[in-house]
């Protein structure tokens, strides 16, 4: 099954609306339809409250709260409909009328068991006769409970949140166990879930409001109910389109990004079960904190659901662009009453973290397809204290998550991605703007570790397939902060021109984008690491599209750049940690990266104490760098006349450099690295490399002397040592010695 073909149908919104372009959205209905949410009692505000409180109190006494439940005395449709008007009004009362609202919630939760195989005894007979009709009405009325009330205190809001949790739990149970729900009822339930998420999450984040307290819970229920619907009554294209349109307006919420990542990873494992045999390696996150995907999904449903959920939040790279995230109706309403630009709203200061979590989620999907373990995002120890649980402590779901401490090995901590998203979202969702320093230092909060030593499974898909699916997002994420999109010749892929047009991008290299780059360095480094793993998984003889090579080398070149302060930044570290074998593979044109790689190694290896702001194991970083250095050793010895072309621009009339000219730099780097190395394993590797260098150099010099003496005595007239035949002979003799370096390193 070639899943890469899906990317052909998921065109960008600017090119016609994507795969849902021919379907109407239900967004306006979800946002503005109020006919089922308002009671006739709203027209009598003075007396309606008293009527509602007295009626719901008596109805609640019959459902078993304080005494044994009894059959309802509501015998006709008219009786039930009249009472439902009262309950609808009761759900919209001010929160200080908590008892009345609570009774309304208990009544509807009891009556919604009409969707269960065995309804409660207190459910009125008209509901049992037509469960779907009344269930749709009750679901519509319950929306009133989730509407935020202005001016309420924190304790009152918490009590509202508890009632909302009760409703969500009831609807979850009904969706999972019901066998009588019709297509119209499923659609009403999904529209309700979209509506309450829109009501609570679309507005800019305000700390401790009901939206902040319910954020994670309403999102998890939305995705869980949606997955159940995929198995029982697959949502229509208008619903999928509405989900995507609305989710795009919630992207300032960290819980959305972490929940989306978990759902996509869980569906990816289901997808791998469809595509590959059971022996395919299982991703380690799936063993600990995985999302529960219904077991009754067919193979085709899994494929369709996976691809649609993957594109639910649009392009994850937009999370690095506050100007795009803030272009929503709620943020524009904020701009109308404030002099501040909506892109500067305090709730958007979490975007660097959301960007990191989203790209890490995509990286996990790539690792799952490659059959390798993912590295975890790990918070510093002090961040543990900032976590505020979304559900009340006694109502937390069974799937709870914890943040791993920084002392753990990066590759073994559990669900750090998810806990990271929730912890940081709760610590940054404040009505006051966080300090700039606290947000720009996000990149320094994550431990970077290497997955070196892991071999992708032999069953892995081709690189082109992975790049068809994730390449666009990863390439764009790897370019965040580099200024590439400021160049009209390097516009986003899919908007009319390929970003393979590299010739006139030189001006973009000098753009001052440090202020943007520093905030999103962590996500950019994660994207670079994932791209390195994809290209380093190339099989022998496998072909990769030239446009992917070009884009990879472009982002690699930018990631290896040294800034003016000569700091070792996160992208550079990420590349070195994940491309130890990049020069040992048969990647087309990789020699153009040799000068850039060598320059980066010259910054890392000769320094005993590097100034690095992120948590990284220095021995592992140096070991990965030494691997790259050792793979450089044979190049100037065996291919001294091979020219190195420029990826961008050129030298004009200047001759192109050759690999042979790098021999002195590589030799000096090897010696300097050996002088400051303290790790025994790394020292052993460097000594092995030095031995190879000496042996190879001596062997080549001896060959050259022997050939010169033979040529002077044996070559007939008209032949010389510089003839094509002799050059070919020398090259063939040299190439045969290249594998010696790997043998010595292994020894």
From TrEMBL:
<dbReference type="InterPro" id="IPR046859">
    <property type="entry name" value="RGPA/RALGAPB_N"/>
</dbReference>
<dbReference type="GO" id="GO:0005096">
    <property type="term" value="F:GTPase activator activity"/>
</dbReference>
<dbReference type="InterPro" id="IPR039930">
    <property type="entry name" value="RALGAPB"/>
</dbReference>
<feature type="region of interest" description="Disordered">
    <location>
        <begin position="703"/>
        <end position="729"/>
    </location>
</feature>
<protein>
    <recommendedName>
        <fullName>Ral GTPase-activating protein subunit alpha/beta N-terminal domain-containing protein</fullName>
    </recommendedName>
</protein>
<feature type="region of interest" description="Disordered">
    <location>
        <begin position="383"/>
        <end position="408"/>
    </location>
</feature>
<dbReference type="Pfam" id="PF20412">
    <property type="entry name" value="RALGAPB_N"/>
</dbReference>
<feature type="compositionally biased region" description="Low complexity">
    <location>
        <begin position="713"/>
        <end position="726"/>
    </location>
</feature>
<feature type="compositionally biased region" description="Polar residues">
    <location>
        <begin position="703"/>
        <end position="712"/>
    </location>
</feature>
<feature type="domain" description="Ral GTPase-activating protein subunit alpha/beta N-terminal">
    <location>
        <begin position="157"/>
        <end position="276"/>
    </location>
</feature>
